[in-house]
Design a protein that fits this description.
The chain has about 100 residues and is mainly α. The longest helix has about 40 residues, at about 20-60. The chain has helices at about 20-60, 65-100. The protein has one domain. It is elongated.
Length: about 100
């Protein structure tokens, strides 16, 4: 039995020069948005896989219950990580909003 790692794509900032600062900012924003979107899509995929295996387990079509257990645990951990990141982002936003001008 092998355990496959949860997918993670590190963020790599684009190389920026002094003349392309505004272009680099736009690209960086697009990279962040696409990375965030890809992460949420991966989370949805993990949850869909766990849901389909749960249906198979409930109907008796699943031969190896360990597959469901691992998929459910992966989906749970990914959800917990996503919630923790969201909480930190909200906390950072609130801290910025409390700063005096």
């Amino acid at each position: 039995m092998t355990i496959s790692p949860v997918g993670f794509t590190p963020i790599t900032p684009p190389a920026a020069s002094a003349s392309t600062t505004s272009a680099a900012s736009a690209t960086s924003g697009q990279n962040f948005a696409s990375t965030l979107s890809n992460g949420l899509d991966a989370l949805q995929g993990l949850q869909n896989k766990a849901d389909s295996l749960a249906v198979q387990a409930a109907t008796g079509q699943l031969t190896d219950v360990h597959q469901f257990t691992m998929a459910a645990t992966q989906a749970q951990l990914a959800t917990e990580l996503t919630v923790a990141i969201r909480n930190k982002a909200v906390e950072a936003f609130n801290d910025i909003m409390k700063m005096p001008l």
